[in-house]
Design goal:
Belongs to the intradiol ring-cleavage dioxygenase family. One of its GO terms (molecular function) is oxidoreductase activity, acting on single donors with incorporation of molecular oxygen, incorporation of two atoms of oxygen. By secondary structure, this protein is mainly β. It has two helices and eleven strands; from the N terminus they run ββββββββααβββ. The protein has a domain of 148 residues: Protocatechuate 3,4-Dioxygenase, subunit A. Strands 1, 4, 9, 10 and 11 form a five-stranded mixed beta sheet that branches. A four-stranded antiparallel beta sheet has the order 3-2-7-8, with no helix packed on it. It has a two-stranded antiparallel ribbon with strand order 5-6. The chain starts with 73 loop residues before the first strand and ends in a 13-residue tail after the last strand.
């Protein structure tokens, strides 16, 4: 009798490759260091304007910012912004930007041959409430190819979170569940921790989706600590 064959060893798990991005997104000039020692307010020279008076309800509804209706599947994205202890972060300025339903940004440097939508700019903002909640109404963005045509990026929303100063800004991306392009996305694959990758994917919330209305997705963000949401340039 021959001895039973021993089980094959498990395949090695490839190391995540840090996302490099498109070459034209890299800075071409050296960093400009601000002299905050002699001018403490210099750091705010290029900062945003904060305050509830500068943000109104229409900013958070990307489908009502133009005279006509934008093309695409309507959806809402809502969630809470929390600190490491699970406490709500109030008054947080949250910004989003995205491609339109055809996968093209309303930006002069976007050369993707997909059509532009004259009724969709793809930018919005809001302030978190006393419970740390934010909410946006928008359309599902389309996938688009990378500039070198090496791969396609899945549908995603870019998020920016501000604290009380420009230097406290965090930028990340939110993905949609079930997207077949997720396993092939270079940026998502560059996040080494599988749990951190999963935290970048929103959850469909049927309870918040109303018949005849937009589909609803829930995406909570943790700003720091061991369960922090991955942000660009920090992890």
């Amino acid at each position: 009798m021959t001895a039973p064959a021993s089980p094959a060893p498990p395949l090695p798990t490839p190391e995540p490759t840090p996302y490099q991005g498109a070459p034209d997104r890299f800075p071409r000039r050296p960093r400009h260091l601000l002299d905050t020692a002699t001018d403490p307010e210099a750091v705010e020279l290029t900062g945003p304007v904060f305050g509830p008076a500068d943000v109104h309800d229409l900013d958070a509804d990307l489908t009502r910012q133009h005279a006509g209706e934008p093309q695409g599947e309507r959806l809402t994205v809502t969630g809470r912004v929390l600190d490491r202890a699970g406490r709500p972060v109030r008054g947080q300025l949250v910004e989003i930007w995205q491609a339109n339903a055809s996968g093209r940004y309303a930006h002069r440097q976007d050369r993707h041959p997909a059509p532009l939508d004259p009724h969709f700019t793809g930018v919005g903002r809001c302030l978190t409430d006393d419970h740390g909640r934010y909410a946006f109404t928008t359309i599902r963005p389309g996938a688009y190819p990378l500039p070198d045509d090496s791969a396609w990026r899945p549908a995603h929303l870019h998020f920016s979170f501000f604290g009380s100063a420009f230097t406290q800004r965090l930028v990340t991306q939110m993905y949609f569940p079930g997207d077949p392009l997720l396993p092939h996305d270079q940026m998502l694959a560059g996040v080494a921790d599988p749990a951190a990758r999963q935290r970048l994917i929103a959850v469909y919330d049927h309870a918040l989706s109303h018949p005849g209305g937009p589909l609803a997705y829930r995406w909570d963000v943790v700003l720091d600590g061991p369960s922090a949401t991955w942000t660009e340039g920090t992890r």
